[in-house]
Amino acid sequence: MNEMSSVSLIIPAYNEEKYISECLKYALLEANGSFLEVIVIDNASTDETSNIARTFEGVRVVREDEKGLTKARQRGFLEAKGDILAYIDADTRMPSGWFAKVQKTFQENRAVGAVSGPYIYHDIPKFQQWIVKYFWWYTLAIPIYKLIGYMIIGGNFAIRRDVLSKMGGFDTSIEFYGEDTDIARRASKFCKVKFMPKLIMYTSGRRFHGQGIVKTGVLYALNMVSQVVAGKPFNQTYTDIR
């Protein structure tokens, strides 16, 4: 069995004053000091995101003035010191056991270079949760993963630093859609990318609330397939929903 690796937690955040406090509370409680560091990348926020994050002991806030999710991810990569870089979204609530699952997976199999798992949307109606679970995960996402052998969900993944270095970091030309599939596709050239259905992450359904569950699902599906088939996203632009 391999020795334990250090894990940096990186949280990109653009105008997340409504969510960042809960995100940090859950992450710090779950990890109980196990993360080497917790870094919030303030991605050109104009609200109180940074000030709120700084009230948490042991949390480092780094300002990235060039707005964009992939740019924030890349800045986290450059700032972090851990052997493993874990990325979550600022509107997530890390569940009990998340850190242990990630650490154990990397420890037991050196061939695994990236791990990810599904979302559970904690604030949407039960029937919408059912739709996401059975139509998105069971009908589309997991079968595609079994077919192509890689999948990453952007607000719930961890990757070895050396793999990310070999990839040349994140593709900062991608604005939003398809960026996580791009990470998985490129990482799979250097390691095993493992999708773990039990590595869940609770998150908000704000994008469903803001643009509808059907439209959101179609956009995510189109961009995932486009990345797999063509190596680029289907949509070049996106709408911020806060």
TrEMBL record:
Alphabetical UniProt keywords: Membrane, Transferase, Transmembrane, Transmembrane helix
Glycosyltransferase 2-like domain span: 8-167
SUPFAM superfamilies: Nucleotide-diphospho-sugar transferases (SSF53448)
Domain of life: Bacteria
InterPro entries on file: Glyco_trans_2-like, Glycosyltransf_2, Nucleotide-diphossugar_trans
TM stretches of this protein: 135-159
A GO MF term: transferase activity
Stated name of the protein: Glycosyl transferase family 2
